[in-house]
Amino acid sequence: MQLLPSARALTAAAVAVATLVTGGSVAGAAPAPARPAAAAPDIPIANVKAHLAQLQSIATANGGNRAHGRAGYQASLDYVKAKLDAAGFTTRLQQFTASGRTGYNLIADWPGGDANKVVMAGSHLDSVTSGPGINDNGSGSSAVLETALAVARSGYQPAKHLRFAWWGAEELGLVGSRAYVNSLGSAERAKISGYLNFDMIGSPNPGYFVYDDDPTIEKTFKDYFAGLGIATEIETEGDGRSDHAPFKNAGVPVGGLFSGADYRKTSAQAAKWGGTVGQPFDRCYHSSCDTTANIDDTALDRNSDAIAYAVWELSR
């Protein structure tokens, strides 16, 4: 059982008294057992869906989208940042310009851990102008947010430093994530031991795809899904088309998850995962129907838990 701070203080005092009584040692005391590493928590799907509902409301109130440089993106950014600030993260905004509009990345650091070994998890927060972008990419953004909040709730103190990011202007060509990577010197890039990317993880006709970039990160995700009895496939549809690409090109180990976009599900994939043969993984990809009705709860739940599992495992 992990002791609360007040209990730790009382225990320390008791040990000090015992040490004085026994002349410098605690008589008969056995070595304290090593504390087991903390297990990743289950990520409540209701919490992730509550974030999605907020993003949907923001889009509805702002012309139907949350696109770069628009009011819907700014409101989305404000929502996520407020949650992180309240949970004790150190947050900062990174400004850039794309297509004549000002954009922002949101970076959130969890205090503690080895600053020379940084584990990052990120997702793009912007939508296309044609829809609210709830699967693309409210799903990844909300799951990463809830994982960060789970870190705070649990008081997790990993050996490595944890950093979370929400990228702007991904839909315009990975602009925000590229601006971030380009802003880092070679020494700072070298400190990132892994970047995990989550772009579309709740597709309504889902597949379970794992990036095959860094072997350790890939194995971490595959092990998680193997534990659920779920077969995965290597992600190819979005290879190089999301925010992991600038990190990978800079030599940072990367990995991530994906549930599919406009590629069509094969009969072999339907046999493994269920769903509809011959239909896109996400029939509402980049369209106005990418709303909260465009989410498969089971895929969102499994992938959210996989994110937390990887963050915990890779940051020990």
Explained architecture:
- By secondary structure, the chain is of the alpha/beta class.
- It contains 10 helices and 8 strands.
- An 8-stranded mixed sheet has the order 1-2-4-3-5-8-6-7, sandwiched between helices.
- β1 and β2 form a beta hairpin.
- α3 packs parallel to α4, α4 packs across α10 and α7 crosses α10.
- It is globular, with a radius of gyration of 21 Å.
- The chain starts with a helix and ends with a helix.
- The N terminus is likely disordered.
Break the fold down into its secondary structure elements and pairings.
Layout: H1 5-21, H2 45-61, H3 71-87, E1 90-98, E2 101-110, E3 114-124, H4 134-154, E4 160-167, H5 175-183, H6 186-190, E5 192-198, E6 209-210, H7 215-227, E7 233-234, H8 244-249, E8 254-258, H9 267-273, H10 297-314
Parallel strand pairs: 3-4, 3-5, 5-8, 6-7
Antiparallel strand pairs: 1-2, 2-4, 6-8
Helix pairs in contact: 2-3, 2-4, 3-4, 4-10, 7-10
